[in-house]
Amino acid sequence: MKTELIAAALCLAFPATAPAFAQTQQPAPPPPCQEDVYDDFDFWLGTWEVTTPDGQPAGTNVISERENGCLLIEEWTSVSGGTGQSYNYYDPGLKIWRQVWVSGGAIIDYTGGLNDAGEMVLEGEISNRNGTTAPFRGTWTLQDDGTVKQYFQQYDPDAEEWNDWFTGIYKKKD
After folding, report:
1. What are phi and psi of 23, to 5 degrees?
2. What is the phi/psi pair of residue 33, to 5°?
3. Contact at 8 Å (CB) between 137 and 110?
4. For residues 83 and 73, what is the distance between their CA atoms, to the nearest angstrom?
5. 36-172: what CATH class?
6. Among residues 152, 149, 154, 153, which one has the least CA distance to residue 170?
7. How many Å apart are CA 36 and CA 92, to the nearest integer?
8. Which of 25, 26, 116, 126 is most buried as measured by Cβ atoms within 10 A of its Cβ?
9. Which residues of 104-115 are buried (b: 16+ CB within 10 A; e: fewer)?
10. What is the per-residue pLDDT across 73-111, written as a single tens digit (0 to 9) for each?
């Protein structure tokens, strides 16, 4: 008789709680940053040897994906030992890519996105530690051979022209 009462109590209790439990469980939200636009800069991911266009070593660069694909972090080391890092991310509110580069000598903050040729083009400003600033732009182009060309220019307001600042050819390390 005691066992029958316990079984009856369990049968009565479980149906009453099961629907409430099922209603409180929510499906897991989708992972962030899965839209195609978050892949726009993926061609730059990897560990790279960087040279000048004439083949002279310039440094190494590691570009890694973090925060579930929402952030790319750059870690640069030049052949002379200088370093720099950047955060690269797509801003969904403004619908643009942004890079903030910081090194011992400068801060570069610029925005943009892919152009019709598939190049990542960012424009903004370089702020030097001495307090001077100038318009600045960078272009990253995936080449047919799998290398990436990085091309930076700084605007000279006195001459009213854009001057080459750095050109690097990125080749993936084995």
Report:
1. -75, -25
2. 60, 40
3. yes
4. 13
5. mainly beta
6. 149
7. 12
8. 126
9. eebbbbbebbee
10. 999 999 999 999 999 999 999 999 999 999 998 999 999
Q: Compute the distance between CA of residue 150 and CA of residue 119 in angstroms, rounded to an integer.
A: 10
* Structural tokens at position 107: 């801060």
pLDDT in tens, 104-158: 989 999 999 999 999 999 999 999 999 999 999 999 999 999 999 999 999 999 9
As given in the structure block, the two tokens for residue 61 are 């660069």
Distances (CA, A) of 79 to 86, 139, 152, 153, 162: 18, 22, 18, 21, 26
CA 75 to chain centroid? 12
Length of the chain: 174
